[in-house]
Amino acid sequence: MDDPGSRFTRLYDENHRRVLAYALTHAEPHTAEDIAGETFLIAWRRLDDVGDPPLPWLLGVARNLLRKQHDRRRRGHALADRIRALTTPADLAAWDVAEHVVERETALAAVAALPERDLEVLALVNWHGLEPRQAAKVMGCSAPALAVRLHRARRRLARALDTAAAPAGPRPAPAVAEEAAR
Fold first, then answer.
1. What's the pTM?
2. Which residues, 6 or more positions from 22, have their beta carbon under 8 angstroms from its beta carbon?
3. Residue 13 and residue 20: Cα distance in Å, rounded?
4. DSSP track, 76-98
5. How does pLDDT run across 115-161, given as a tens digit for each residue?
């Protein structure tokens, strides 16, 4: 009896072209090559199950793989059609990528404007998920002191976000600003 490597090599050499030809009759060339390759991968894994003659078994595996691939493609198209049917022009306008880029840049500018101590307090509580008393231990202060730091850091972040989001239009002259403040 042949060793598995030699048996598989012979199986591949004798049948690969025919399996590929079968797949080419049902799929695009790149897909057919993938199907033929996967067919022989399955044959390698299940070498003892390959019948004699092996071609019908191999073509059955290729047929099943083609069917699964076709079903996957059909489900993908059906899902895309459903999403397309549910999408309105307002949805498309709401997902303007440029708006998200501007919002992200605004947030990054606001965070960059904060002092290091504020960043650390906010990161411990919001990013790392620590409770204020746990964050206080990390910062080496009391829980009430951390609560005050956290409150101030949040206020400074809110101000920085407001400042970063404000339009950079023309500003009134100092004399006009003083007049408006009165």
1. 0.47
2. 59, 62, 63
3. 12
4. HHHHHHHHHHH--HHHHHHT-HH
5. 888 888 988 998 888 898 898 998 899 999 999 999 999 999 888 88
